[in-house]
């Protein structure tokens, strides 16, 4: 198994948030994680990257149990980028993880330039992160994870605090990450975040209620979440046609 989990369960005090969660992820896959508020999406992502520890079950990475050494290969992007930004300048923020792992300075400079260029912030390396737009801050948060060269990137509603422009910027970066062969799981309520996912995993009250292709998920109306624009138009057209047929038949 490249990545995934087996029989995960997790409790906050006595409340069971995750209940017997199991799935496998293929290398390079782009997965959407959906569910209503409180369904367990954020908790699941945090368990998968080792921020939280499951009460039961296993997280697997490259056929081995996830441990301290392998956790560095799994990056986590918070909903609010300000929770990740700690540097005085953009480049200092990206350098933080590299400094903590003892990367030589010359190599560090190259990695920082590459990461900032990849997310489109190469001209803002000396900027104060507090002066950045919401979309730029989220791209900086992604760069600070990307520079550590993770194989898997977990995103917890990364566009929910952004305006349409910022959301578009993050979508473009996600496309770049996929072209680099990164495996991405994105938890989101926004239909625009899920347009290009290959697969959807839906949670309800801590359990997986759907794991399959995106098209079937929307066709079967598995969860009452926002429909993508195209599917929304088709649904309204079909409903209008159905109403017209009913009126003609009366």
Description of the structure:
This protein is an alpha/beta fold and 250 residues long. The chain has one domain (3-249): Rossmann fold, CATH 3.40.50.300. Helices cover 36% and strands 24% of the residues. The chain is built from seven helices and ten strands. It has helices spanning 41-48, 90-100, 105-118, 134-146, 164-179, 214-219, 229-249, and strands at residues 3-12, 15-25, 30-34, 56-61, 64-65, 74-77, 152-156, 183-187, 199-204, 207-212. The protein has a six-stranded mixed β-sheet with strand order 6-7-8-3-9-10, with helices on both faces. Strand 7 (152-156), helix 5 and strand 8 form a beta-alpha-beta unit. Helix 2 crosses helix 3, helix 3 (105-118) crosses helix 4 (134-146) and helix 4 (134-146) runs parallel beside helix 5. The longest helix has 21 residues, at 229-249. It starts with a strand and ends with a helix.
Largest sheet composition? 6 strands, mixed
Name the shape in a single word.
globular
CATH class categorisation: Alpha Beta
Low-confidence parts, pLDDT < 50 over ≥5 residues?
none
Number of helices: 7
* Largest beta sheet: strand ordering: 6-7-8-3-9-10
Do you know the CATH architecture? 3-Layer(aba) Sandwich
Strand content: 15-25%
Q: How many structural domains can be distinguished in the coordinates?
A: 1
Helix/strand order, N-terminal first: EEEHEEEHHHEHEEEHH
